# Entry
Amino acid sequence: MQSNLHGDERLPIYQRLADALRSDVTEGRLRPGDRVASENELVGKYQMAAGTVRKALDVLVTEGLLERFHGRGTFVRSPSFDASLYRFFRFRAADGNEAIPEGRILRREVELAPSFVARKLGIPEGSPTISMSRLRVSESTPVLAEEIWLPFGRFEKFMDLPIGDVGDLLYPVYDAICGQLVAKADEALTAESSNRETARLLRIEPGTPVMVIDRLAKDFGGVPLEWRRSRGRADQFHYKTEIR
Amino acid sequence: MQSNLHGDERLPIYQRLADALRSDVTEGRLRPGDRVASENELVGKYQMAAGTVRKALDVLVTEGLLERFHGRGTFVRSPSFDASLYRFFRFRAADGNEAIPEGRILRREVELAPSFVARKLGIPEGSPTISMSRLRVSESTPVLAEEIWLPFGRFEKFMDLPIGDVGDLLYPVYDAICGQLVAKADEALTAESSNRETARLLRIEPGTPVMVIDRLAKDFGGVPLEWRRSRGRADQFHYKTEIR
DNA sequence: GAGTGGTCTAGACCACTAT
DNA sequence: TAGTGGTCTAGACCACTCT
# Structure
């Protein structure tokens, strides 16, 4: 079989192949966990040298879209980072292991989008959204207070799911119930003095510093799926980075 | 000329070449800004295929150690990140441009290392250090209050330099006066309520949240050169990141 | 024009994983 | 044992930079 690559012919062949494979993922023809065609198959399908195919795959591995396993094949990476996203905070159980904190939904209702939420989600002001308050609890200690907004159109079915059936992780539920797959997210960090409401939820003194994490979660195509603002005790916050 | 690669013979050739070139940088035979031998030269020197040389160079480019310019050559990257390190804060001049804030040294003296500093710098407790307080000022507004420690042994000559001759950036001075080149750094972020001293320096109310940034700066070989703790107004702090 | 890195080919052989 | 990715070779041609 002979397939041709689309796109700008001035681009290197490996880039165009990478673009084609990336589209297969962003447009749903390949889903996380799926195996990508082997090097040999791609060589046959697109009629190019094996080295060129490898280079295209290398690009996508570097991007984090694919991962390769010697002897097994090349796979679409599963973005299952809900548990890892709050890596900024100490979520350790007493035994020292990383734990997924419990997620308790305190409130869930359909609400017209406030302007700042609409702007983030890229929907018209006043569109319906699902608005939630959620508390994340680790070892029976509250660690994060969250406010979450979802565009109603894509998440309508989520309202039919009893709150008690929602587990500790939301993203797998978005995928299973609404077919909305969170693939990446932008986060912005800042700190502030806790107000009375936040202090009550986190069981701290009002005025104690809290870290604020705004997150815009998107699908593979970059379409905003969820906006949330999370607050946690600053004295439990620890973010490390290396700089060169 | 024929040179042989050292290191574990079970490792891939491209890895061993990358290791050799990395050592050339960390051990000072190649300095930031220097041109690395061209692909052809490396092929001749180490007797290997051009593709293998390219792969070794790719590794180091990905690491951020080298950068390549089509038609010009491959160069050791200059880590001149002092200005970019405080990228977390709004350091913008009124005209919207990024500005390097002024750096005022308020205090500089030789001091025996407190235990937590000694531990960070990897020197014996009670060793002599140079201890400094420094205020970074942008548009005549104080933005960061810093406490800095240097191991005395490597930075002895720095004490001979009049404080007035130290400019707004310290790392170029460390290099020029003491031959100590900062190549990378680990940072850890947290937030706290400002104490009276910090509040006075930053001209804020005591108790207002401040971000705290601990930084351990190292040379190319990973030897700790400087430890500093910086505090800035949380309401000016903004850190953004993307997650996949 | 000489030298550099960037792309691409067409093979060979090896190491790992599945069955 | 068949199929996969990982390493390595030896070339070709192209695009860019410098002088």
